[in-house]
Amino acid sequence: GETTATSADVDTIDATEESPIHILWINAGLSCDGDSVALTAATQPTIEEIALGALPGLPKVAVHWPLIDYECGPVQGADNFVEWFFKADRGELEPFVLVIEGSIPNEAIKREGYWCGFGDDPETGQPITTSEWIDRLASKALAVVAIGTCATYGGIHAMQGNPTGAMGVPDYLGWDWKSKAGIPIVCIPGCPVHPDNASETLTYLLYQAAGSAPMIPLDEELRPTWLFGATVHEGCDRAGYYEQGQFATEYGSPQCLVKLGCWGPVVKCNVPKRGWINGVGGCPNVGGICIACTMPGFPDKFMPFMDEPPGARISSTASGAYGTVIRKLRDITARTVDKEPKWRHRGDKILTGYRP
Ligand code: SF4
Ligand code: SF4
Ligand code: SF4
Does the annotation place 262 within a ligand binding site? Predict the structure, then answer.
């Protein structure tokens, strides 16, 4: 494809059938593949729509993704899944977006062996570590996307007391790292990632590569601002109960879950607004406390999960007192507005206030 500069630091790619934008997906960090699985449930857009070119103006893409790829095999050679990664390393795959799923263990602290790898080194027959792939490919990629909380901030594998020294991609490459096209690491957290947050962000980057979208807006933690700008609480359909001081004391209640351990008021996540799959679900909406799985401090700063968050005690006590008064006043208004106006009747007089 042809590369032309269009703005200060973004290149535009003219992707064609013969020269598509490749998406190289490494799920060989410390990962459960949950984010790959989640993406198969995306609806806005679907992964099929991205891969098959169903979206107007979207560049042609070729997806190399372990979850769905027919090609397999861990060594270098034709018709081999890992060959695409060797090609990219040799500079023969232009352009490509590197997607990383799973946290990056610290290979510098191990005593022997390796923590995790992907494909074999033909010279030695030994696995190539995930960190080595990142070292080889990041500088050649159009953009690097960290998908899921493990890849973005370390997640579950990076908990206190872990033996691998695991970290997220920005911890590994540096928070100020930029791709050769001037794009910072794009972080889409979530454990797993919300399917549509993932497919929408990939779509955005492809439109940006085609020159149809400006530089992707990211916040300080490198998240797309339009997806992670609001809290769970701001989008929760139980927020009215919170405001009226009505708190569930057991599961199965429709009321606010804060006393059961919901961290929603301080968690940046759009899941309750968006629903989990095709608009349906969304943790607190359907009765599950928010355990803050999208957050950089997850999981340590939110444990133990089933306890009421420490800050919630003060705010829920305040809203409990205020909410009781407000609810009483609302009851009066509610009784009034729950009745029809008095002039609707069958009598022979018009009482609507109409004057001919
Ligand atoms: Fe699995 Fe969660 Fe890590 Fe994704 S972020 S790889 S879903 S543990
Ligand atoms: Fe906020 Fe959680 Fe209560 Fe929803 S359930 S209103 S997110 S505290
Ligand atoms: Fe995770 Fe909370 Fe968002 Fe659910 S609502 S996905 S637990 S951050």
Answer: yes
